[in-house]
């Protein structure tokens, strides 16, 4: 039961963060391209890589793992919105933007996970 509470709390917080970050992004960057979704997916990937590398070195309880990785970051990142926006770009005939969106979200997110992971590993080794 406690795992469910951690999951709900993390998911709620992550969703609120996604709404805020996406809204701020749209406020400063407008246009047809879904920059807000790209921003939350890329920063979420960077954070998950960073935290995964950190928690490999420093243990974390299963409940906190549930809260952070499944709840918070699961609620923060948004694969379903990314998929819908990509479909809508294709449907509107903007094939070039749709392909850019697909590539940008996938490549940037994967690169961000690696960057976060290796950044924390570098910091742990060099700050000892």
Compact overview of the structure:
The chain has helices at 2-28, 35-57, 62-76, 79-91, 95-126. It is mostly helical.
Entry keywords:
single chain; 128 residues; mainly alpha; 0% strand
Explain what the structure shows:
- The longest helix is centred in the last third of the chain and has 32 residues, at 95-126.
- The protein has one domain (2-126).
- It starts with a helix and ends with a helix.
- It contains five helices and no strands.
- It is globular.
- Helices cover 86% and strands 0% of the residues.
- The protein is mainly α and 128 residues long.
- The model has no long low-confidence stretch (mean pLDDT 93).
Q: By helix and strand content, what is the structural category?
A: mainly alpha
* Residues in β-strands, percent: under 5%
Task: Give the radius of gyration.
Answer: 16 Å
- Main beta sheet, described? none
């Amino acid at each position: 039961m406690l795992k469910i509470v951690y999951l709900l709390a993390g998911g709620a917080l992550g969703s609120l963060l996604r709404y805020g970050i996406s809204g701020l992004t749209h406020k400063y960057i407008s246009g047809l391209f879904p920059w807000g979704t790209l921003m939350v997916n890329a920063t979420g990937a960077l954070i998950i890589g960073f935290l995964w590398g950190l928690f490999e070195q420093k243990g974390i309880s299963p409940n906190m793992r549930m809260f952070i990785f499944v709840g918070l970051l699961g609620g923060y990142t948004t694969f379903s919105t990314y998929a819908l926006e990509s479909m809508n770009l294709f449907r509107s005939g903007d094939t070039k933007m749709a392909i850019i969106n697909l590539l940008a979200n996938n490549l940037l997110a994967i690169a961000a996970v690696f960057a976060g992971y290796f950044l924390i590993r570098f910091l742990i080794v060099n700050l000892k």
